[in-house]
Amino acid sequence: MPATVVYVHGAFISDSAWWWSYVAEILSKSDIQSRTVDLPSCGPEGPLGNLSDDAKAVAAVVDEISGPVILVGHSYGGAVISGAAVGKQNVEHLVFISAVVPDGTSVADCGFIPADDIPELDIRDDGTVGEGEQRFKSRVLESLPSPDMTEEAVQRLTRQSLASFTDPPVGEAWRNVPSSFIICEFDADVPVAAQRAHAERTGAAHQVPTNHFAHLERPDLVAQVIVDIVDKLPVAP
């Protein structure tokens, strides 16, 4: 039975299918199906879900798939897939793209968010947080291959619940499930040193010459990592 990739987006993201569409198109040529999840922690205003709600939303999609699943988490999404995969026998591999590989600490405390950035975030009374005046997500997106892609990406940024960043891990499935890490070599969002530290918790590390959004900047390289993983999955009797 062919594998299905379930993609879990990072922080402050809406319309997950758009962010994954470039990789999904390439994967389809290798008969690899793709699914996306819009996380309940992300939206225009509160109240929004927390990390546990996000993990449950992804786990529900995994339950709908009868064959093997590869969970791909980008940035914050790494914490989500680590919880969603717990107890899911059909999850064969976890792929972290510049992503949190949780080891007992919250996303806020895992080394991905520089301490100097926290006071600059736009925190509101409805329990949500946004990128604020520093526009740290929007600025990173300016490095995408074309102005049109940047414009489309920025239009799909949204707010997120503060709780999703401060909650403790809801699972650390990477300890039991085979996993890989894609390091974004020129990442202006997540420090490369932090990525390398998290990558050491996984079974294999791959480096790509991109900024934070490798799946938009070089979807071919991200897809190739996934295709290679699929090709090595055990064949069901």
Which keywords apply here?
alpha/beta; single chain; 237 residues; globular; Rossmann fold; 6-stranded parallel sheet; 19% strand; 4-stranded antiparallel sheet; 9 helices
Let me know the number of strands. Answer: 10
Query: What multimeric state do the chains show?
Result: single chain
Which homologous superfamily in CATH is the superfamily? Answer: Alpha/Beta hydrolase fold, catalytic domain
Distance between the termini: 10 Å
Please describe the biggest sheet, giving its number of strands, its sense, and whether it closes into a barrel.
6 strands, parallel
Computed Rg: 16 Å
Query: How are strands sequenced across the largest beta sheet?
Result: 2-1-4-5-9-10
Q: List the domain count as a whole number.
A: 1
Classify the fold: give the CATH topology. Answer: Rossmann fold
Query: What class, by secondary structure content?
Result: alpha/beta
- The CATH class is identified as Alpha Beta
Percent of residues in beta strands? 15-25%
The H-and-E topology, N to C, reads as EHEEHEHEEEHHEHEHEHH
Shape annotation: globular
Low-confidence stretches: none
Helix content bin = 25-40%
Helical run tally: 9
Summarize model confidence as the mean pLDDT. Answer: 94
